[in-house]
Every structure is written in C-alpha cells, then in structure tokens.
C-alpha cells in the first residue's frame, strides 16, 4: 500500500533536540500568572520523546508538530492543553495525540476538542481501562485510547468499554517500563491511526472505527485473573 505523508500533532513534554520529523514546535507555559506561547525547550521528562518515537516507528512518513505543555514535572492545566490543541489545528495536523488525562471536565478544554473535531482532526487521548473517566478522553468525539497487556507491538484491542474504546501495546520502543500504561498505549494507537491515514484511509470517525475494529486482534475487555 502506498504511504503518503501525514502531519501529526503531539501535546506532551516536548521532543529531543534535532528530532528529524518535527516540522514545528512551541511551548505553552504559565509565566507570571499569564499563559504564553514561548519557544519550546528540549524534553526534560522523556515522556514526549517516547510518544514521538512510538508514532514515528508506526508511520515513518509522518511529519510532527509538537506542543509542549509539561517541562520539569508532569503537570499542566486545561487552559494550556486547550491552546496547544488550537495551535496544532492551525498547523493543519490530521491527528492529535494527547497521552495525558485531567480530572476536571473544563469547558475551555472541551471547546478546543470540539473545534479540532469540527475541523476534521482525529483526536486520540489517554484513558484508563477501568475507573473514573479523565479528560479530554471523555469528551464527545474524542477516541479514548489506553494500554492493554494482551497487545504486543502492532496489535490492537477493540474494547468498547465504559471508559476506553481501544487498547494498544503498553511499552515504548526500547521495551522499558518508563511511562508504560495508558499514555504509551495511546501513542501506539495513534501510530495505528497514522498508518491508516497514510494509507489513504478516510478521515471520518465512523470509517476509522470500522478499520480499527476490523484489524483488532482482541475484542472486549481484558480478563484479569485474581
């Protein structure tokens, strides 16, 4: 299947210096009580770098736009994530990966997700396979992605669960446990979506879900032995 370049947005802790497929980057930081767009700095946490590596491995032709909302620690605000999403939509990305989850369903974040989806952007966000809903994953139209221990690299679980739609491999490319779980599962699922788009797949939620369901190795929730 012929692959075409796909532009992908990542909202996370940034990327390593000189990451070849990154075409644009910006940071969104609260300074002096004011939210500002400032130049991005190299990833200090490594989380965004692992997310980028996962998606790039799945779709080598992809180009990336990286919105940095974490720096020294993995904490951000709905306002930062919202403006990051809006910036990525302005960069004309086809897909946004949000390997993060916030507890409060703030309207500022819901509005940004709504605008992205209305612009035809596919939004994938990390969700817990069980437990309380997190945002932006729980907003309407957002694909709720998580990790599934059954999935090896390249495998998909179609969960259709109360809090998660799909699950993927839980580890980064180096096989380490660093950041493993829902956030890495979301990145792997975004990699699958990027591959689908690069192959000419329709950019509609219904068509994408049909494809994901069709290629999934597992269906239904993971059964854990107690």
Structural class: alpha/beta
**What is the 3D shape?**
globular
Name the average pLDDT: 93
* First-last Cα distance: 43 Å
By CATH, the architecture is named 3-Layer(aba) Sandwich
Spell out the helices and strands N to C: EEEHEHEHEEEEHHE
Low-confidence stretches: none
Count up the domains: 1
CATH class: Alpha Beta
**Helix proportion:** 25-40%
Q: Estimate what percentage of residues fall within beta strands.
A: 15-25%
Tally the helices: what do you get?
A: 5
- In spatial order, strands of the major sheet run 3-2-4-1-5-6-7-9-8-10
Q: What would CATH call the homologous superfamily?
A: Peptidase S8/S53 domain
Question: Could you explain how this protein is built, in words?
Answer:
The protein is 29% helix and 21% strand. It has 226 residues and is of the alpha/beta class. The chain has one domain (7-219): Rossmann fold (3-Layer(aba) Sandwich). A ten-stranded mixed beta sheet has the order 3-2-4-1-5-6-7-9-8-10, sandwiched between helices. β2 and β3 form a beta hairpin. α1 (47-58) runs parallel beside α4 and α2 packs parallel to α3 (107-118). The radius of gyration is 16 Å and the shape is globular. The relative contact order is 0.17. The model has no long low-confidence stretch (mean pLDDT 93).
